Amino acid sequence: MMAAARMLRRGQSRATGVGSWGNGEEPAPPGNQEVAAESRKSHRPVKRQRKAQRLHVAYEDSHGEKSEGAEPLAVTVWEPQDWCQQLANIRTMRNRKDAPVDQLGAEHCCDPSAPPKQVQRYQVLLALMLSSQTKDQVTAGAMQRLRAQGLTVNRILQTDDNTLGKLIYPVGFWRSKVKFIKQTSAILQQRYDGDIPASLAELVALPGVGPKMAHLAMAVAWGTVSGIVDTHVHRIANRLRWTRRMTKSPEETRAALEEWLPRELWHEINGLLVGFGQQICLPIHPRCQACLNQALCPAAQSL
Predict the structure, then answer these.
(1) CATH code assigned at 278
(2) Taking 70 as the threshold, does the pLDDT of residue 96 lie above it?
(3) Which residues form a coiled coil (predicted)?
């Protein structure tokens, strides 16, 4: 009986994990399979969640003290060297306002007393269409002859092509301009009640109206500055290196200038540079000796 009792107690000890010495002092050592399983468990990679990192930007406030925060870094905008001084010099050279554009530009070719306002805007648009590839003096002469006949949408549509051609001759490409003027006038009568569109996109869509004319029409007829564009501006901007790289067309120059030139200067810069290009910075044989920018102009030595 005593032997049976000892065997019973020994079986209970094994079942409960208590050591063979009794009182649960030490568990029995694990077998080979248990050791292998524990080893594999200890070598498994442990996946840890990464905490999102918050980036802080150190900056100095107006008192020179360093602070931290989410202030965006300032983006440096490219601008040409010495452009402020070059512009000031051009203003000085143009202060007399005696270039052809100052007396014969599109804004001077319309009849300021012509009622209603839409007639004045129509005359501005026609002056711009005639001015392409044409000197201001020739454009002004053609506009005077047209105004003498009564320059309105209806009057132009009633004028035959031969007569209209004689009135605008000798503007550049006068035959094509007769066709474009007739087509544009018909569109203005049908869609705009004899007025001109008030948006750049609609102006450019008119026959014979390019980007330069549309931008100038927005500025002169509607008083809205929408961009900078002119062949004189294109030439002078490249000579002064006012574009990051050399540009090949007035439209490309316009986009390059508008990247950095303050918008409040857009309206001024066109008339300023046109007159400067007519008097001093000529397309051929520019008058560099008379230019205040001679020492600041990168192109002065090569012209």
Answers:
(1) 1.10.1670.10
(2) yes
(3) none
Q: Is residue 140 assigned to a domain?
A: yes
Nearest CA to 156 out of 183, 115, 191, 185 is that of 185
Closest residue by Cα to residue 185 from 122, 128, 124, 111: 122
Residues shown for the chain: 303
pLDDT at 17: 45
Say how far apart CA 266 and CA 227 lie, in whole Å.
7
Task: Output the pTM of the full model.
Answer: 0.69
42 has pLDDT over 60: no
What total of structural domains would you count in the chain? Answer: 2
Per-residue pLDDT, averaged over 198-227, amounts to: 94
Q: Which of 47, 51, 177, 212 is catalytic?
A: 212
> Residues 233, 215: one domain?
no
Task: Tell me the per-residue pLDDT of 75-91, one tens digit each, with 9 for 90 and over.
Answer: 678 999 999 999 999 99
Strands 57-60 and 66-69: antiparallel
212 is catalytic: yes
Q: Radius of gyration of the chain from Cα atoms?
A: 41
